[in-house]
Amino acid sequence: MNTLILALFKSGDKLKLSSVCHLLNGKRTASVLTFGFFQDSLSFFGLFPTMTIEFLEKSCLQLSSKGLLTRESDRFVITEKGLTFFYDKEACLDSKFDGVTHSRTAQVFFELLLFATQVVSNASYKESNYIPIDSNNFHHYQVKRWYAKNKVSSSFVVDFYEEWERLVLTLPEEKRSGLVAMLSGFTQVGQTFDQVFYQKEQYRNKLENYLAKISLQHSLIKEVAQIDKEYPLFKSLYDILLETAGNHSASETYRLSKEGNAIDAIKSKRKLKESTVVDHIIEGLILDDEPDYSLYLPADSKRYFEQYLQKNSDFQKWRFREVVANKEHSFLSFRTYQIMKEKERRSHAN
C-alpha cells in the first residue's frame, strides 16, 4: 500500500486528501478526472470504491512518520526520501491497472466470462443439469443472449476455446495456470481467485491479493477491448455488458460535440445544464487519444493562453479566475488548452 500511495504523490505537488480519495473512489466528475489526468494517476481511478479519507489520512501519517511524505496544512507532499523509496519499489506496482476505463466493468466481465465458459462447456456435452457458478439472474440473462446469438456457428465451441488460449498466453507465465484453474465446465468446478493465488507467498497479504485480482481483471478486459478482432466472441460478450454498464451520457455528449453540434444545441437535445455539457466534453478530451482541440479552443483564446504561458509556464496549476480576468474566454477553452499542453508535454517526454 505504501508504494501505491506514494505513486499518487509522485508528481511532487501538494495534494488534498479529498481529491486523492475521490480519485480512488472513482467519483466520475470533470474535476476529479482532471486532477487524475494532471497527476498521471487515472490508472488508479476507482481502485478502492470504499476508501475513506480517515483511512487515507492514517496511511499518509504513517508514511510521514517514516519521512516519506510531509504534511502541510490540509495537504501532503512527497519528500526526496519518498521519491527514492517509490522509484526503488515502482516495479512492484503492477502497471496493468486502467481504472478510468474499466473500473466499472472489469470484475463483471470476468464473472461473465467464467460463467459463459461453464455454459459453453456443458452445452458442448449436451449437459443441462448442472449448478451454475454464478447466481446473478441478470448475468444469466446476459450470457443466455450472448450464447443464443453465437451458437449458430458450426465452429463456435472451437473458436471460443481458441480465444481462451490466446488470452491466457498474454498473461505472465506464473498467472496462466492460476487462471485456467478458475475455469469451470463439464464435470469441472473451477477454484476461486483466493483459492488459486492466496496460497502463493506474494499474495498472502489481503491488499496484495486484492490488487493482483484487479490487475488480472484489467489485463483481460484491456486485451479483449483493444485487440477485439482476435476475440470476436469475447468482445461480443463485453458489448452486451456495455449496454447496461454505467452511464454513457458523457460519451454521447462528447460524440455530439465532435460532430459539430454547439453547446446550446446539445443542451436542448439532451436536456442538460450547460455546466454538465462542458464537464462531459472535458471528460471526452481527457480520454480521447486524438482530440480535435480546435472545436473547443478558438484561435483568439489559444493566442491569449499562449501569451499567458510566457509569464507562467506552470499551466497545470493555473486557476481560471486568475488567468481570465474577464469573460472573453470560456472555461471550456481554458481547460482545453491545459489538456492540450499536458498531452503535448507527455508526447515530447516519450
UniProtKB/TrEMBL annotation:
Domain Helicase Helix-turn-helix: 249-314
Superkingdom, natural source: Bacteria
Originating organism: Vagococcus proximus
A Pfam family recorded for this sequence: HTH_40
InterPro entries associated with the record: Helicase_HTH
Protein name: Helix-turn-helix domain-containing protein
